[in-house]
Amino acid sequence: MKTKFMNLTRAILIAGLLSVSAKVWAEDCLSGLPDSLRSAVEQDHWKILSPFDIPSADWKLWKNAHQGQCPGVATGNFFPKTDSSFVVALIQGEDPKNLLEKVVLLTQKKGQPITEIVVNPLQVSSPSLVWKLPPGHYAGVDGKRAMISRDSFVFEKVASSATQFYYQGSKLQSFIISN
Predict the structure, then answer these.
(1) Are 60 and 82 in contact (CB under 8 A)?
(2) What is the pLDDT of residues 28-75, one digit of tens each?
(3) Are 58 and 50 in contact (CB under 8 A)?
(4) Is residue 1 part of a domain?
(5) Which SS3 state, helix, strand or coil, does residue 15 take?
(6) What residue numbers bound the domain in which 74 lies?
(7) Exposed/middle/buried for residue 47 (C-beta within 10 Å: 0-12, 13-18, 19+)
(8) 121 neighbors 45 (Cβ within 8 angstroms)
(9) Is 14 inside any structural domain?
């Protein structure tokens, strides 16, 4: 009896520690996004996608493939007229099986946030994630090829489909990299 109680106590303690560390990590993964930009997108009930919003099976795949990256924010040199920009995955809704999601590009001009919608709001049963790719040569599943001279980003439905986005000049381009 004493052993069962100790095992239960240990399990509760470990679960509590994991929960606290996950919360700290979730907040820490957003720490690279300036507060002024964060507040520019977290309006009208939209919130930045966090690890807590991802189904556990998807989270395991994401964590293994993108160690240390935030699933809702990608930081890079995406836009031609700025050195640093952010791609942010946003969700809206209380039911995790019935969410609205959209993706925005955030930059700053003269200290003011500039927001551009990259993926229009759409209804989903589980959210997609964003991550950064460095400049380079890339090819889509449809045979489309691109030589990309700045960072690009991927909008991915884990274990399903992914689309790579990039700017060519000031025009946003994309191609499917998995389906």
Answers:
(1) no
(2) 677 678 888 888 888 899 999 988 888 888 888 888 888 888 899 999
(3) no
(4) no
(5) helix
(6) 32-178
(7) middle
(8) no
(9) no
